[in-house]
Amino acid sequence: MGRINKNLNETIERMKSLFTEERMFGNLVDDIETYEGDIEGEESESAKPSCCTSCNCWADCGGESYFNGSNGRPKIVISKSDSYFSVSYDGPTTGYLIKHGKCENGGGTGDSIHQLCNVLTYEINKYLKGKKLKPDINNIDYEKSGNEFTIGVPLESSDKSYKLERRGRWNGGEAGKEEVIGKYENMPGYDKKVMPVRYSSGGIIEYFVTFYE
User: Fold this and answer.
1) In this structure, are 19 and 102 located in the same domain?
2) Which of 31, 71, 76, 154 is 20 to 30 Å from the Cα of 142, by its Cα?
């Protein structure tokens, strides 16, 4: 009888242990399921990735081939032709350094989705160099919704090779207007009557200008 009681007690203790483990495991599963992003394969890299040697991780890490949506990274897609140039972003709004003016001491990760604007000017100006095209800044497609952001710039024929520049803020007010005017208003082709042109969506405010050099 004593042996039976001992076995019964051991069984009860084992059941309690399994129940506790199940609860702990269930909580762990819940925690994993709340993580947004693909964590399979290589380890997810946020902040400044190891492939990045400057503040321009977009160029250092291979552009679209790295920022492709895998391992939790944002997915950035570029589409270009002589009539239209667009960039799109889908992914975490913060946590990743992509292309930022200030990246020292871990900076530049608080506005990842806004850094699409820096990718835009970097890539479109490479594309426009040597081409007789001008960005139509009055008809830019500009939309941010949740974790997605798209900017599309119509291009028109010109006798000069123009550039596109911008300044702006994410939830930071209108400071970009004075910044872009102060830096570019004396450039050839800058039309003070219509520039800068303001766009706003999802809290991201940008002022665009175009000129030639």
Assistant:
1) no
2) 71
In a shared domain, residues 18 and 69: no
Half-sphere exposure of residue 75: CA atoms within 13 angstroms, side-chain side = 9
Average the pLDDT over each of 41-45, 143-147, 154-158, 181-185 and give the range with the smallest value. 41-45
Are 202 and 145 contacting, i.e. CB atoms less than 8 angstroms apart?
A: yes
Query: What is the CB neighbour count within 10 angstroms for residue 68?
Result: 15
b/e per residue 159-189 (b: at least 16 CB within 10 A): eebbbbbbbbbbeeeeebbebbbeebeeeeb
Cα 166 to Cα 153: distance, rounded to the nearest angstrom:
13
- The widest CA-to-CA distance across the chain, in whole angstroms, is 103
Angle 27-109-172 from CA coordinates, rounded to 5°: 110
Task: Tell me, yes or no, whether 137 and 181 share the same domain.
Answer: yes
Task: Please tell me whether the peptide bond between 49 and the residue prior to it is cis, using omega within 30 degrees of 0.
Answer: no
Dump pLDDT digits (tens) for 66-84.
999 999 999 999 999 999 9
pLDDT tens for each residue of 163-213? 999 999 988 778 899 999 999 999 999 999 999 999 999 999 999 999 999
pTM of the model: 0.78
